[in-house]
Amino acid sequence: MVTLTVCLDSLQAIFGVQQNFSYPGSQWNQRRSIDRVVRAEHLLLKDYLPSGLPDGFFIPADRDRDQKEEAMVIILREGALDLELQELEQFLSAYNVQIKPTVGEHTIIWGLVGDTSKIDIDGLLIHPCVKDVKRIQEPFKAANKKFHPEQTVVHIADGIDIGGGNFQVIAGPCSVETEEQITEVAKDVKASGAKLLRGGAFKPRTSPYAFQGLRAEGLELLLHAREQTGMPVVTEIMSAAHLPLFKDVDVIQVGARNMQNFELLKELGKQDKPILLKRGLANTIEEWLMSAEYIMAEGNQNIILCERGIRTFETATRNTLDLSAITVLKEKTHLPVIVDPSHATGVRRYVETMALAAVAAGADGLIIEVHNDPPKALCDGAQSLTPEQFDTTMKKVEKLRRFMETEINN
Ligand SMILES: [Mn+2]
Fold first, then answer.
1. Which residues have C-beta under 5 Å from ligand 1, the single-atom ion?
2. Cα(361) to centroid of ligand 1, in Å?
3. Which CATH number fits domain 154-405: 3.20.20.70, 3.40.630.30, 1.10.10.60, 3.40.50.720?
């Protein structure tokens, strides 16, 4: 029980937790001032607390008021030497954080308060006196909904916004092939209600022998299709060296394979164009948000996240569409999130149902591959809808959206 009191002291120091809780835990939960429960496993502090303690810590609502503050907890090794502790303190002095020590019967915990985002956890673990380190908050700030509660609306063109209640569909072929192809598809998808045109010019293909895209010529054809239809264009960049070619592109896409190309992300952070950031094949939501953070840290706040399926053991679909990512992202970030059911499934006949599922899950938009002659497509024909199929899908998407707005979300 002594340790419990000590731990509560420490938590109060770190979080401002109200201290007059009475054991057992059920009563803690009933307190009105408490709105969030951080599970002890999450904090990795469970092992250091007396058994029988309810495995949750309670953080009052007003914790979020100090928006710049991040907390970190260092658990020190038993029997750590004074000299080692001094060295650790000296290491931390470079970071302008306050140390709030708590001495328990068997455990010493240092709570760090302040901007701990620059402190490298590995750098702390090197110190022999450190047993464990846990960050209390997410390492992303600019993308964090806690710090920016209002939804980001990414403005693309007159009357075309994504996010904050604005839903858009991006459609077009996997890759730009010919002038006729891209222009024809653009006109078709526009007639069905798509507001943005997609089309790859630089294609990251698994095989170096596969069609690599028309590159600069592809961009020209895409911009020509924009002239013909008035649709803003979305296309993928693979290297920062190509940026001058993208100066007239409306939205720059970062493909799944480049999600962690940090040098590219930094360069895109210096642009003022919206960035469509696809999720990597095998990346966590947090890693994805950290990639968004790379762009935002350089100044560009106009990011649209795109869930496009992740790699799992399943082979019936090209990837596994992680629909739960939408709902997780809605909680964690203010950035809009759209879904790509084409790459997620890889199979034309699965695209429509997954598009509808994404709408139901609260996506801010869709990006769908459409080809005027899928069997002859140079890339991703198997997952491309025909313009007729796309039209049917769009009608259902619109119906579902109306239903969501009028019947579900009202
Ligand atoms: Mn494709």
1. 174, 380
2. 23
3. 3.20.20.70
Q: How far apart are CA 93 and CA 99, in angstroms?
A: 9
- Parse the chain into domains and list their residue ranges: 2-48, 69-136, 154-405
Superfamily of domain 69-136: Phospho-2-dehydro-3-deoxyheptonate aldolase; domain 1 (3.30.70.1140)
**CA distance readout (Å), 136 to 71, 126, 333, 339:** 5, 20, 17, 30
Q: How far is the CA of 75 from the centre of ligand 1 (A)?
A: 47
CA of 175 to the centre of ligand 1 (A): 7
* Per-residue confidence (pLDDT) for residue 55, from 0 to 100: 40
pLDDT of residue 21: 39
Backbone angles phi, psi at 368, to 5 degrees: -130, 135
Distance of CA 167 from the midpoint of ligand 1 (Å): 22
What's the pLDDT score for residue 116? Answer: 85
Give 387 Cα–ligand 1 centroid separation in angstroms.
Answer: 16
Residue 1 one-letter amino acid: M
Distance 203 CA to ligand 1 centre (A): 8
Instruction: Say how far residue 372 (Cα) sits from the centre of its chain.
Output: 32
CA of 404 to the centre of ligand 1 (A): 29
Question: Which pLDDT score, from 0 to 100, does residue 133 have?
Answer: 94
Residue 44 main-chain phi, psi, to 5 deg? 60, 20
Ligand 1 centroid – CA 227 distance (Å): 23
Tell me what pLDDT residue 241 has: 96
Q: How many residues does the chain have?
A: 410
Q: Could you tell me the two tokens for 255?
A: 């493909």
**Which letter does DSSP use for residue 172 in this model?**
E
- Average pLDDT, consecutive stretches of 10 residues, N- to C-terminus, the chain (410 residues): 36 43 37 34 41 40 43 90 94 91 86 86 94 86 91 97 97 97 98 98 93 96 98 98 97 98 98 98 97 97 98 98 98 98 98 98 98 96 98 98 93
- The closest of 147, 142, 143 to 67, measured between CA atoms, is 147
User: What is the predicted pLDDT for the residue at 31?
Assistant: 35
